[in-house]
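Researcher: I'm preparing a figure for a lab meeting and need a structural model of a single chain. I don't have an experimental structure, so a prediction will have to do for now. The sequence is pasted below. Please return the structure as tokens so I can convert it later.
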Amino acid sequence: MLAVIKADAYGLGAEAVAPGIADLVDGFCLFSLREAAAIKLWELTGKPAMTLGQDPGVGEADYTAEHVRPAVWTIERAAALRGARPILSVDTGMQRFACPPEQIDAVLAAGGCDEAFTHATRLGHVQRLLESVGGRNLRLHAAGSSLLDEPLARLDAVRPGLALYQNAVRVSTTLVDVRDTRGPGGYTGFEAARHGIVLVGHANGLRVGPCLVNGRLSRILEVGMQSAYVQAGQIDRAGDEVVLLGDALSEMEISAAWGTSPQEVLVRMCGMGERKYVGVG
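Model: Understood. Here is the structure written out token by token.
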């Protein structure tokens, strides 16, 4: 189990998440060495890590000092980082940070790699990995969150990212003003019988979409730079809670309304305000 904590653990805060799950995982995945060094990951958890992306200007001694193994996909990169026990990244369709099939033998030899992986979103990617490097006595992994339920994709390890964080976050704010709407409102001329205002806006990454007001499904009607209009009911008052994520409102529902991914929803929502952790010392 290699937990993906890149991008500050999808916005949840890697410095808190990593030690919180360290006893449940065998290691961590990050995009860059700098992410691991910034939170002193090895000192925090005592668990090794690997990177999935590129670190311009970083040498093998930097990786070994942090107990991090780099992904490699070119002969030059593999040779330069051989002392850091690099891991071969195989291109099975993603077409970034990965080695094309015709160069696999040369990169494996240059890096002395004993492990290989791919970025897989379907079983066809897993099969291509096996066809490319299977039977070479390499440790193999391919499955991220989307393939955890597929036994054929599990291989020697899995790399959950989004699966770690779904339903783990609750984002809330309060109404600072509530009033009956008199004709078209806001910049867009929205129409509603009653509306409230929250102090969250474009600057915080908020978009028009669903929310919960006093536990009732409602909607963000319009977003301004640092505030937004919320559809309100007759019982709603200033000071009442508005939930932007959590309870009965999932990342999937919000991402569908926003026209984006649940990963982006998490990163944006978790950066909107002060983070508080439940069950962390």
